[in-house]
Amino acid sequence: MEHLRKRLLKVEERIVYLGQIKEGPDWGNLPALQESLKGVRDSFYDLSQEALAEKIASLEESVSFLEARCEETLSSMERVRIVRSPLRFSLKDLLENVYEEYTELGGEEDANIDPALVAARASICRRIKNKTIMQQVMVIGHEKGHGEEYRNGGSTKPWGNEKALRYMRVAETEGIPIHFYIFTPGAFPVEEYPGAAQQIARNLYVMAKLRVPMIAVTSEGGSGGAEAVGMGDMRLMFSHGYYSVISPEGAAAIEGKVREGDKLPKDLVETCADRLAITAADNLRLGTIDRVIPEPILGAKRDDFAFFRRVKAEMIRATDEVVLKTKSLRAFRAYELKLEKGGEAGLDDEPRIDVSWELADDEIERLLQLRSRKYREMARQGYQEKLSGYAAFYRRAGQSLAKLYYTFRYDILKSQHKQVKKVIKDVSGESSVLIKQVSAPFSAAYDFISRKPGGRPTRSGTLWGGGSEEQVEYGEIYTSSLANEDRTVTCPNAERHGCKDLWVPDLYGEFCGVCETCGHHFPLEYQWYMRHLFEPDSIREFNADLASINPLDFPGIDKKLELARKKTDRPCAMITFDARVMGIDIVVAMLYSNFRNGTVGAAEGEKFVRACEVAKIKRRPLLAYVHTTGGIRIHEGTLGVIQMPKCTMAVREYIGSGGLYLVVYDNNSYAGPVASFLGCSPYQFAIRSSRIGFAGPRVIRETTGEDVPPYYHSARSALKRGHIQGIWDRREFRRNLHKSLMTMGGGNLYYR
Fold this sequence. Notes:
Layout: H1 2-21, H2 30-42, H3 49-72, H4 76-84, H5 91-98, E1 101-105, E2 117-128, E3 131-142, H6 158-174, E4 178-184, H7 196-207, E5 214-222, H8 223-227, E6 234-244, H9 248-255, H10 266-275, H11 280-286, E7 291-293, H12 305-325, H13 329-340, H14 361-376, E8 383-385, H15 389-450, H16 467-470, E9 488-489, H17 494-497, E10 502-503, H18 504-507, H19 526-533, E11 540-541, E12 546-548, H20 557-568, E13 574-581, E14 584-591, H21 602-618, E15 622-626, H22 638-641, H23 643-656, E16 661-665, E17 668-670, E18 683-687, E19 691-693, H24 697-704, H25 715-720, E20 726-728, H26 733-743
Parallel strand pairs: 3-4, 4-5, 5-6, 6-7, 14-15, 15-16, 16-18, 17-19, 18-20
Antiparallel strand pairs: 1-2, 2-3, 8-12, 9-10, 11-13, 13-14
Helix pairs in contact: 1-2, 1-3, 2-3, 6-7, 7-23, 9-10, 21-23
């Protein structure tokens, strides 16, 4: 009777699970099944064993039929509910069933640094004939648990992602592969050190060039929180999982303009889940993942042991593939042919071929090259570039010639020039002692004659006089169009600092949008910066034809994009150009607010990557000026999210080549860009009165249940937390930028 009781309990669990997926017990034949279940449960001890077994078998058959029907019609939101179910397998279940043994690192359970992020040293074995081969890996991933509140639903805090980074480096030191498992609705949005955005950016920056194979598998992937441990050489996804730029509920709140605290319309949430293209099939089609791991009907649960065997086979196979691609195509093809031989390895069995996961130095370099190429090619279908075949050929030829020219000029000629200068300096240094002894009496006599009464000797030139401070204005003063209104405005700090009302023509004219009493910075349009920062006629825009599109066919977005293009006369939210600042040529990537609030999609990411490549070729500093960014553009789904690792890879390669990367924030800068290619810069500054962070106050309140202080995202708070390295006054922007260009960065810059 005990085994029949267990079968009955299992049937009840399956019926409840179906009700959870369908968000209600009234779907299909569920009400009748529940009544039948109740009848069997009430008469459990009144029926004979044969009759009881027959009734339970009938229930099982009916439930299986409903499950198959549900699987055939699964919506995107129903997949989200499957992933969120406490019955679903977790990282601990994978550690216990996929790996032979493991040791959790950094503490256990509620004594952990962050129980939502688990790192473990594990062993995985493959069997070749009668021989067992154990291979070591580092397993890092989110642990949702099965209802434990202290795990925070897999929402990792900044110190959890810091722990992940620490053990990534341990794996790199030991030369073992890393297996990432992603089970998170998103990162926990707090700015306390090390900061949610900053830590994700650090993780991405390190993963870009981590010298070991990385396999990333997604069950629940929520935007930046997923990418914090998701930049794999092979990106897999469970068939019932989801990977999204934002939760369906968050998208519904934005699309429906739902006020905080109001109930979200169910139909709108379902619609947004479908439109965001969040399923495994969607992401495979978009190219943001490489392969899908099949699951049982309605998703795998914690006791699906056949599924765990499949996961083990897939992880071994994926690691083998990444390793073999670093060796040679011939070796990889031979491996594939062996897998195709029937009988050597079944669909659910691990590959029975001995592949060493240790890489030589040249293989590591090939691994990094393949990773760079992989992310460089992602999301190319997410933007539009109107170039004829001739124009595209001309551009490629120009890039090749430019690379050849700058390599010859700066790598060959300049290195020789430096050597000659060093020899001359050494020789002149030795001879200067003798020359000084001979010329000293004449110099003393000249200084005595040329001295003014009561003063010092006069010398001309910018190094001695004050002329350099007066040579920073270029051409005519640009006056903001905001200065055309004849009215006054009140400074937000008037009550605290006693600021006087400001006449608009003065405020946006000679005051540069700054309150003269307290220094509060009123927002200015991006054109003001372009006219005031750079020398006249030095701006040369490039890649101006790259345009944002609507790759997911999100309803209404084509019209909104067209309105943004008419409003700005530009095709996307980023402008990339060459410019000059006080005699120094630089490359600039500017995100501005006028186009869709400065959000980043595939076009903006591609333009930024190309700006990095131009700056790298020309040996010029790269300035990312963020007039405003509202984060990743949600209407492009994961094609937008993938810009985080893609752009960070480009930044890492630019900095690695010796470039100087400066980031300056203004107005409001939030979310994905700050948590990736902006936040990874070693030199970040903010214009006074700007606001910087990972998530806005509403998201923080909804996630943490707590209000944030008024100045939580202020530039001063960001400076205290170590997010930025300084706060700049708008009126001193050019001078501070020039100082940074002259004092920061390595010797690879053309003017060093």
